[in-house]
Amino acid sequence: MSKNVSEKQEFNPAARRKARHYGMQALYQWQMTKDSVTEIELQFLADYDFAKVDVEYFHDIVHHVPANLEELEQAFTPHLDRTIEELDPIELALLRLGSYELVKRIDIPYKVVINEAVALAKKFGATDGHKYINGVLDKLAQDVRAIEIKAGS
């Protein structure tokens, strides 16, 4: 990790958005290949320009989503209309990422989590996949962020 990784910076929404973008792709790769998350992370850091990416957050996504997989899937599964195995791989990666942010990263407003997941679904997912992602994450947010939602954040 050389020129692509800078010292800790102040929060930058665009850099965080790019970290989610690459993080979702890395999760998708992990799901499909079953390669180690460390291997995938190093591959992404070598292959892409991370100069304007929140590298710390990318690392967080790539390592903590798989580490908390069972808890995350238990959180969003009740809101599915099909089994996890029937989900599109992009939808699955996005639901895992969005669930991680809703459940484990309460520092990120729930509206930001949902909006970012929907934007990624529009970019990478099936035609109406973003609607499904929005619905599932919205229901999960009502479960795990009820106080924040009630407060009108």
TrEMBL record:
InterPro entries: NusB-like_sf, NusB_fam, NusB_RsmB_TIM44. It comes from the Bacteria. Residues 17-141 form the NusB/RsmB/TIM44 domain. One of its GO terms (molecular function) is RNA binding. Keywords: RNA-binding, Transcription, Transcription antitermination, Transcription regulation. The keyword Transit peptide does not apply. HAMAP family: NusB. Belongs to the NusB family. Involved in transcription antitermination. Required for transcription of ribosomal RNA (rRNA) genes. Binds specifically to the boxA antiterminator sequence of the ribosomal RNA (rrn) operons. PANTHER family: ANTITERMINATION NUSB DOMAIN-CONTAINING PROTEIN (PTHR11078:SF3), N UTILIZATION SUBSTANCE PROTEIN B-RELATED (PTHR11078). This is Transcription antitermination protein NusB. The gene is nusB.
